[in-house]
Design brief:
The chain is of the alpha/beta class. The protein has twelve helices and twelve strands. The longest helix is centred in the last third of the chain and has 16 residues.
Amino acid sequence: MATRKVGFLHNRTKASFQLHYAAFVSRLHDFIEEEDVVIVEKWAGDHLGKTLQEHAKDLVKQGMDVMVAAGGPQTALAAQKATKKIPIVFTPVTDPVGLKLVRSLDEPKGNLTGIAGMTSELDVTRLQLLRELLGSDSATIGVLINKNRPGVKDHLKKLGAAASTIGVGLANMVVESLADINAAFKSFKGDEPDAFLVTADSLFNDLRKKVVQFPKKKPAIYQWREFAEAGGLMSFGPDIIEAYKKTGEYVGHILNGDKPWNLPVSLPDRFELVINLRVALADKINIPASLLSRAEFVHSRLRT
C-alpha cells in the first residue's frame, strides 16, 4: 500500500494540545497502519510569523490526501479557502452550517465534514450554571471572549439577552492575547465581577494554565474539563479528547475510500459538569447541592 499523507493544521501550540493530538493519531492508526501514513503537522501558534492561511496553502502544495483542520472555526475556514478538492475533517467547530462549511449536518456536500463541537453554543448554559452557583439576581459576571472568533458580536448579543432573562449583569472582556487578558482583569481595580465566564475558544484552551489563575477567589466556569484539572473551579462541555479521537476515525474512513460528503457531521452525545473541589475549598466558594448532585469531581491540582 502506498504511503498516504495527512495534513494536521492547528491554530494553537502543540504543547497545549499534545494529548488531543495523541488521541487523534492513536485512533487514526486503528484504521491505517503507522507505516502507511505520514502526518505533516502545522501549528500556527508555534510559527507566529505565519498565518493559518499560509500553513493551509503549504499543506495543499505538498499534496495531502486528507487535511485535518483543528482548533475551531478559524482553522476550518482557512483550510476551506485553501482547497475545494482535498478532503477536510474539522474539529471542533461551532455551527458549521452557519459558517457555510457544510450544507447540512446530515449531508455535508463539498469536501468538508467533521465534528460540531457544541462549544460556543453552551456558553449560555455556562452562564446559567454560574447564576445557579451565585444564587443572586444582582450579580455581575465577567465574560472573557476572543475578539477574533467568528461571530463574536452576535455571540455577545446572545449572552446579553440570556443575562437579562436570568437577572444578571455582564462585564465584557474582549481580548486577543495573554497581555489583553492581564490588562482586562487589572482594569477592574478591585471592583471585580462576582464570577467569570471564560467563553469557548482555542485561545483560552491554549493558555488554560495561565487563564485559570486570573479569577482570584472568584468563581469561574470554562469550556472543558482540562481547565478544572489545571486549577479552574468548574467546566461544562463535551469531552474534547473524544472529539479528536473521532477526527482520527473520520480520517481513517476517508483514507479507506469513503467520501467526506457521505460522512455526516458528528455531534457530541455526552456533556459533563466538572468541579474542582480543592479549588472550591481553598477559595471558600460554596457549591450548592443542586450542582454537586450533577457534577463529576477532580481533585488533582490547585492553582499555583
